[in-house]
Amino acid sequence: MAWKNQGGGPWGSGPRGPWGSGPQPVGPRPPDLEDLLRRGQDRLQQLLLGGYFSGLGIALLLIGALAIWAVSGFYRVQSEELGIVLRFGKYVRDAQPGLRYHLPYPIEAVLLPKALRVSTISIGMTLIDDPTRRGRTMRDVPEESLMLTGDENIVDVDFTVLWRIKPKGAADFLFNIQNPEGTVKAVAESAMREVIGRSNIQPILTGARTTTEQGVQQLMQKTLDNYGSGIEITQVQMQKVDPPAQVIDSFRDVQAARADLERLQNEAQTYANRVVPEARGRAAQIIQAAEGYKQQAVAEAKGQSARFLKVYEEYAKAKDVTRERIYLETMERILGSSDKLIYDGGAGAQGVVPYLPLNELTPRRQATTGQQQQGSGGTR
Questions:
Q1: Are 216 and 191 in contact, with CB atoms under 8 Å apart?
Q2: Are 196 and 212 a contacting pair, CB within 8 Å?
Q3: Rounded to whole angstroms, how far apart are CA atoms 107 and 84?
Q4: Is there a cis peptide before residue 203, judged by omega within 30 degrees of 0?
Q5: Residues 6+ apart with CB under 8 A from 312
Q6: Is beta strand 146-148 parallel, antiparallel or unpaired with respect to 352-354?
Q7: Could you tell me which residue, 32 or 4, shows the higher pLDDT?
Q8: How many other CB atoms are there within 10 angstroms of residue 20's CB atom?
Q9: DSSP secondary structure string for all residues of 11-33
């Protein structure tokens, strides 16, 4: 036995040392943990087994446990979730976003898939960590993107699929497929390969992207519906459509030549659209002028013929008078535009005498008289 536990010693009784009395406790003594546990066990035994409140204690415990079990049925559905309530493992109903309640476990349970969120899957490309850029960069996946076209060419297609759970297909989504993302990716790659395999490379590289996207979306939706997946394909977007890297330069040369061909064809068609209408307009103008001349000539001929018939009718009525009138009108028309000289061939004649045009002198005389009157008026 150690010297400090001995009842006595050379320094007296009690726990003393060679330097006087032993260490004394400072402040209140802490409670003993073993003593507290022993007291709690005793009270619990009295309450449950033989104590005064044994029956009431059991009832209170049962009521508390039942209340906790009942309250455990409350749950909350977030804005992008849809609650699927199961009763003994069987689907019974949907639960919309908000605070909801179901019968506590194990009677009912709830699953909360992200039914209202649009998910994205990329095929032919993947994001990888890039330490040089301190971020993530896109890397091509040739085993997913290289595809064979209908005219036996290889094309590199990177595309993205946007999908979501159908409004009433959450139960099918949870119970009919095990790996939704893997299923959508496999179906997307298969559908794209089938559509590309039915098409030639030239339309795919130029203007048939929209048609290809729609064909892939329809084929994917049909396949997923046959699976009973409860998935809706909202959109298919082709990100990159190029020939393989080994022959991309040659394909670009071919595309440039095709573009030049289309440009020259468009220019020729534009020139034809401009020249042909002009030629047709000139031809129509010539035809209309000829038609007008024809109608004019025919009308003049008919008029002259009718005039001749009228003259002949008058001539038949009075031949001498009509003959003389025709002679005078003809001479008037011939001599009216020529210079006239009168020759007097008598014995006392002076020779050629100029014809005096009285009709022309009369207007000149009147004009001269008017000028003189104006001059005399100004003098006044």
A1: yes
A2: yes
A3: 14
A4: no
A5: none
A6: unpaired
A7: 32
A8: 8
A9: T-SSSEETTEE-----SSPPPPH
pLDDT of residue 130: 64
Helices 180-197 and 209-227: crossing angle in degrees, nearest 10, is 130
Pairing outcome for strands 83-87 and 108-111:
antiparallel
Structure tokens at 16: 């003393």
Q: What is the pLDDT of residue 54?
A: 54
Helix axes 248-317, 319-335, angle to 10 degrees: 130
Cα→Cα distances 81→217, 240, 312, 353, Å: 25, 33, 111, 129
More confident call, 79 vs 145: 145
> How many Cβ atoms sit within 10 Å of the Cβ of residue 332?
9
pLDDT tens profile 284-333 = 999 999 999 999 999 999 999 998 888 788 788 888 888 888 888 888 88
* 3-state SS, residue 272: helix
Q: Which residue has the tokens 């007097």?
A: 344
- CA nearest to 173, candidates 117, 98, 104: 117
Give CA–CA dist 110/86, Å, rounded: 6
Indicate the DSSP class of residue 46: I
Lowest-confidence range among 64-78, 128-142, 157-171? Answer: 128-142
Residue 177 near residue 227 (C-beta atoms within 8 A)? yes
| Count of helices and strands (H, E) across the chain | 10, 15
pTM: 0.47
Total residue count of the chain as it appears in this document: 380
Q: What is the residue type of 257?
A: A
Confidence check: pLDDT of 246 > 90: no
76-80 LR contacts (CB < 8 Å, sep 24+) = 76/100, 77/112, 78/112, 79/116, 80/114, 80/115, 80/116, 80/117
Place of tokens 């020939």: 243
Please answer whether residues 164 and 116 qualify as being in contact, where contact means their C-beta atoms are separated by less than 8 angstroms: yes
In this structure, which amino acid lies at residue 379? T
Cβ–Cβ < 8 Å for 209, 238: yes
CA-CA distance, 128 to 59, in Å (whole number)? 61
